[in-house]
Amino acid sequence: MVTVATQEAKQAYFAKMRRKNYLASLRLEGFDVSDQKVANKLSTKADVIAAHMRKASA
Questions:
Q1: Per-residue pLDDT tens for 3-37?
Q2: How confident is the model at residue 1 (pLDDT cuts 50, 70, 90)?
Q3: Residue 27 and residue 9: Cα distance in Å, rounded?
Q4: Which residue, 2, 10, 33, 56, shows the most beta carbons closer than 10 Å to its own?
Q5: Torsion angles phi and psi, residue 56, rounded to 5
Q6: Residue ranges of the domains in the chain?
Q7: Pfam families, from UniProt (predicted)?
Q8: CB neighbours of 22 closer than 8 A, spacing ≥ 6?
Q9: Residue 33 near residue 27 (C-beta atoms within 8 A)
């Protein structure tokens, strides 16, 4: 039986793989990374913009 992946499932899979590859790349470059240290605190676009605005006004 062949299952058909939805667009959301594909996006989630590729986001997971992109993050995994990014962490592997950091490890290869010699950075000390773990999943706990690299937890994504800024999960939405609005959070990222707000963080940059706070940094720019400081």
A1: 778 999 999 999 899 988 988 898 899 988 776 55
A2: low
A3: 27
A4: 33
A5: -70, -35
A6: 7-57
A7: YhfG (PF10832)
A8: none
A9: yes
